[in-house]
Specification:
Number of helices: 3
Number of strands: 2
Order of helices and strands: HEEHH
Strand content: 5-15%
Radius of gyration: 20 Å
Strand order of the largest sheet: 1-2
Helix content: 40-55%
Shape: elongated
Largest sheet: 2 strands, antiparallel
Amino acid sequence: MDTTVLGKTIYKNYIKKIFDLLMATFLIIVLLPVLLVVYIILRVTTDDTVIYKQDRVGQYGKVFQIYKFRTMPKNTPILVGKQRAQKSINWTIFIQLLRQHLRYDCDYKN
């Protein structure tokens, strides 16, 4: 058996998974205070649930669930283009900051 193939298999199956698990655990511990503060502020400033669950499609079409902070009220009409920019929803300042600075897709402009 070729040692490069064996080395890649060991890396892929064990070392990378252990590294991913350790980094995820470390980041959860480090970011937990920040996430708790965001949760508390959202809970105080909104009358709705703070965290919601969304189905996403991952690699090879596998569906998984992601948990996100709710920064828009439930039953909000879907707005596009100029309607979206008008902000017909009365958001709190904190939610506006979250949506403005933590948005990861490039097509959202404020």
